[in-house]
């Protein structure tokens, strides 16, 4: 770990220093607390043996360890272990602040790099979709990103991701919180390889198509990280 992260949002420049890392037992995962100069970042770490591949997953403005699609994230975290992929779930310190939330993910990336990870995927729901786009724009270890019901605000850097970074965008056509046009817009900006799936009858949380989303995201991650 380099211990210091920096990111820019327009005229705003954010910096954070990592002051310490604590680990403790959890239910099928390690509880990881990353102390930084901007505050404490709480994570859940699912560790695969002898791997250089991992996925970071984040929720939206609900905060905590929220997850879309009927516990999509914990399901993925456990199942990806069988494919030799570690996972880190990050809880935002300020789940409505795009700059601070992006810093949380960058801090998580720094931690995971210190665990030997050199190939990384990012998954974000709603507000978290824009967060993972911003984070991927700032880190060269990111190989693929997945956005679920993303907002459009903050996704424009998707057009400047490094060559070869793959993008999967998923949305429901009955989303009353953020219209599916947000993902259509992001898709129009992204470069290949990319895919857009709009599920009929699905709302913002994608609960109605949770099994389909699970299968699609898992397949995408395995294809682009293995």
Care to describe what's here?
The structure is a single chain. By secondary structure, this protein is an alpha/beta fold. It has one domain: Alpha/Beta hydrolase fold, catalytic domain (Rossmann fold), CATH 3.40.50. The chain contains 5 helices and 10 strands. It has helices at residues 72-81, 98-114, 127-138, 181-189, 210-225; strands at 4-9, 12-25, 30-36, 39-46, 53-58, 86-91, 119-125, 142-148, 166-172, 194-199. α4 links the parallel β9 (166-172) and β10 (194-199). The longest helix is centred in the middle third of the chain and has 17 residues, at 98-114. The mean pLDDT is 94.
How is the topology of this model organized?
Blueprint: E1 4-9, E2 12-25, E3 30-36, E4 39-46, E5 53-58, H1 72-81, E6 86-91, H2 98-114, E7 119-125, H3 127-138, E8 142-148, E9 166-172, H4 181-189, E10 194-199, H5 210-225
Parallel strand pairs: 5-6, 5-7, 7-8, 8-9, 9-10
Antiparallel strand pairs: 1-2, 2-3, 3-4, 4-6
Helix pairs in contact: 1-5, 2-3
Number of strands: 10
> Any idea what the CATH superfamily is called?
Alpha/Beta hydrolase fold, catalytic domain
CATH class identity: Alpha Beta
The separation of the N and C termini measures 24 Å
Brief write-up:
28% of the residues lie in helices and 33% in strands. The chain is an alpha/beta fold and 226 residues long.
């Amino acid at each position: 770990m380099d211990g210091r992260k920096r990111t820019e949002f327009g005229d705003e420049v954010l910096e954070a220093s990592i002051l310490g890392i604590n680990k403790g037992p959890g239910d099928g995962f390690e509880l990881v607390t990353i102390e930084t100069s901007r505050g404490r970042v709480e994570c859940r770490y699912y560790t695969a043996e002898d791997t250089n591949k991992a996925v970071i997953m984040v929720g939206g403005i609900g905060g905590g360890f929220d997850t879309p699609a009927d516990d999509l994230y914990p399901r993925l975290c456990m199942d990806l272990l069988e494919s030799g992929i570690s996972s880190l779930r990050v809880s935002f310190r300020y789940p409505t602040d795009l700059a601070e939330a992006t810093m949380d993910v960058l801090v998580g990336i720094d931690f995971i790099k210190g665990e030997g990870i050199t190939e990384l995927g990012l998954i974000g729901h709603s507000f978290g979709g824009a967060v993972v786009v911003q984070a991927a724009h700032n880190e060269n270890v990111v190989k693929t990103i997945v956005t679920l019901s993303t907002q459009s605000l903050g996704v424009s850097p998707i057009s400047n991701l490094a060559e070869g970074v793959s993008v999967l965008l998923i949305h429901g056509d009955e989303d009353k919180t953020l219209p599916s046009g947000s993902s259509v817009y992001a898709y129009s900006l992204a470069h290949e390889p990319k895919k857009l799936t709009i599920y009929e009858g699905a709302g913002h949380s994608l609960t109605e198509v949770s099994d389909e989303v699970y299968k699609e995201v898992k397949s995408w991650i395995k294809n682009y990280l293995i």
